[in-house]
Write a structure and sequence with these properties.
By secondary structure, the protein is α/β, with parallel strands linked by helices. The chain has two domains: about 220 residues, TIM Barrel (Alpha-Beta Barrel), CATH 3.20.20.60; about 45 residues, no CATH class. The protein contains twelve helices and ten strands. The longest helix is centred in the middle third of the chain and has 21 residues.
């Protein structure tokens, strides 16, 4: 459940535990049971109890849990629940803003995905990424936009969000983490739009996307998978690389070590 194959991470509310098996069966790379934004403030305790009951009898695939942010009333109880259950393989920590936020979760022994949702989180990215236990980074686009004071769905907002993606990508690489996961895309009834968004994130170095609806799973997975033409080209490069030394040509393109590495990455993604 953890690892490089998380092209899709599908949210499901903890208050609706009957949806968790359906989310697991959707084909998503991972399921994130949400105790934070998807649960109203007056339903946090009952949602936690519902998740506890589900996990007590769950013998299926492991899950991630998005807990409430450090400093909120539910944080300690959420963390204790996750630590008790082997089927919780990872914790998504919202509003991560410091290395100490991550260390407060690391004692659970679970993989951690910090969710960057503020300017403070962006400034502390390198410190956050360096804490042992962090698996990869992600971010909350809506909360981050609100914190930065930018107007959504505008060219300017897209430019700023791309800069934030760049920061996540570089910090992840520098810390030796798995590639980051892109934020949710609010559209789920337009497969072409979802596919295009996923493919753009893939081209920016991201490994996958957070999903809010099962309909997004298939187009997002397609968007993060190499095109058939890319796979065919990569096979040609690797076949030629086994029989030649130094630089050589494939389909009129000069191939050297960096191009071979790119072909290898394409084939890994295809698998």
């Amino acid at each position: 459940m953890t690892g490089r194959d998380l092209k899709t991470m599908l949210f499901v509310p903890a208050s609706r535990p009957e949806r968790i098996p359906k989310a697991i069966a959707s084909g998503a790379g991972a399921v994130i049971v949400d105790l934070e934004d998807a649960v109203p403030a007056d339903a946090k305790d009952s949602a936690r109890q519902a998740l506890e009951s589900f996990l007590a009898g769950h013998d299926g695939a492991p899950i991630y849990v998005r807990i409430n942010a450090r400093g909120t009333a539910g944080f300690e109880a959420d963390l204790a629940l996750c630590a008790r259950h082997d089927k919780v393989v990872g914790i998504m920590l919202p509003k991560a803003e410091s290395a100490s936020d991550i260390r407060a979760v690391a004692g659970s022994g679970k993989a951690i995905i910090p969710l960057i949702e503020s300017a403070r989180g962006l400034v502390a990215l390198n410190e956050i990424a360096a804490v042992p236990g962090v698996e990869r980074l992600s971010y909350g686009g809506l909360d981050l936009s609100d914190d930065l004071g930018i107007e959504g769905n505008t060219e300017g907002a897209d430019t700023v969000m791309d800069q934030c993606r760049y920061q996540l990508l570089v910090s992840s690489r520098a810390a030796g983490l798995l590639a980051p996961i892109d934020t949710v895309f609010p559209v789920f009834d337009d497969e072409d739009a979802v596919l295009g968004r996923a493919r753009r994130a893939r081209n920016m170095g991201f490994a996958g996307m957070l999903c809010i609806h099962p309909k997004q799973v298939t187009p997002v997975q397609a968007g993060f998978s190499p095109d058939p033409d890319q796979v065919a080209w990569a096979h040609k490069v690797m076949e030629a690389a086994t029989s030649g030394g130094g630089a050589f040509k494939v389909d009129g393109q000069m191939v050297d070590a960096p191009v071979i590495a790119m072909a290898r990455t394409i084939l890994e993604r295809a698998r």
